[in-house]
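testing teh design pipeline on a random one, pls ignore if ur not involved
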C-alpha cells in the first residue's frame, strides 16, 4: 500500500506546513511487517527510513558534514525507536483495532463522500477525548510525557475517516492539540501545540518488496557511538 501524509503544526503563534511524507507499507497475515518512508523535512535534504520487524535502517546521504558517516557508508541501522510499524493520522492509529473501534464509536456524522483511489467512499467523522483514547491504548502519552488524564484527558481529537465499500480506509484526517510539557517548561506556562494531519492511502493489496539496504553500505548505531 502507498501512503502520502501532509501535516501542519501551530507553534509560537504561527502555522508551519511541511513537505509531504511518502512511502509504502507492507502487510503480512493482516499486520504491518515493513515500511519504507521518505521524509524530505529531516536532515539536510531529507531522510529515508526502512523498518523491517524491529530492525530499522536510516539513510543519511545528506547528514550534517560535521557528523559524517564512515567513508562508503550511506545507512545506519538500529533496533530501537523510532522504528515503528505504524499507520496513523495523529493519534488515530489505523493499525490498532482497539483504537480504531474506540474512534468509530464516537461517530457523530456519516454520509456519502468523494472518490479516493478510484473507490467511492463514505465519510465518518466525530471527536474523541484523550481519556477515551487512553482506555483503548493504556501506554498512550501526549506532548512529551503527559498521561491522557486530568485536564488533558478532556482535550479532544477531531477526526474524519473516508472508508470504501470494501471497508478499507482511503483517507484519514485528524486535528488536535498537545501540551507544551517539555523539560524546559516554565511554571504556569499554558502554551500548547496544535496539529493537523491528512493521510491518503492507496493501492491496497499491491505487491510490496521492502528489503534492507546493502550490508556494505550500512553501519550500526553501536559502531557510530563507540
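output:
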Amino acid at each position: 500500500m502507498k501512503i502520502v501524509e501532509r501535516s501542519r503544526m501551530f507553534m509560537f503563534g504561527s502555522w508551519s506546513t511541511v513537505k509531504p511524507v511518502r512511502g509504502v507499507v507492507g502487510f503480512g497475515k493482516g499486520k504491518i511487517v515493513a515500511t519504507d518512508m521518505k521524509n524530505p523535512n529531516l536532515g539536510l535534504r531529507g531522510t529515508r527510513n526502512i523498518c523491517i520487524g524491529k530492525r530499522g535502517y536510516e539513510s543519511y546521504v545528506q547528514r550534517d558534514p560535521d557528523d559524517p558517516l564512515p567513508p562508503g557508508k550511506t545507512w545506519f541501522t538500529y533496533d530501537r525507536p523510532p522504528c515503528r510499524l505504524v499507520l496513523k493520522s495523529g493519534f488515530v492509529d489505523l493499525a490498532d483495532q482497539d483504537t480504531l473501534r474506540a474512534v468509530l464509536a464516537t461517530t457523530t456524522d456519516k454520509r456519502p463522500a468523494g472518490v479516493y483511489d478510484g473507490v467511492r467512499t463514505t465519510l465518518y467523522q466525530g471527536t474523541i477525548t484523550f481519556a477515551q483514547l487512553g482506555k483503548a491504548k493504556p501506554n498512550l502519552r501526549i506532548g512529551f510525557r503527559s498521561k491522557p488524564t486530568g485536564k488533558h484527558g478532556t482535550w479532544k481529537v477531531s477526526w474524519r475517516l473516508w472508508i470504501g465499500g470494501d471497508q478499507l480506509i482511503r483517507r484519514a484526517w485528524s486535528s488536535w492539540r498537545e501540551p507544551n510539557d517539555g523539560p524546559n517548561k516554565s511554571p504556569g506556562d499554558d502554551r500548547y501545540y496544535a496539529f493537523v494531519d491528512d493521510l491518503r492511502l492507496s493501492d491496497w493489496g499491491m505487491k510490496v518488496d521492502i528489503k534492507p539496504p546493502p550490508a556494505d553500505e550500512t553501519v550500526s548505531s553501536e559502531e557510530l557511538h563507540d
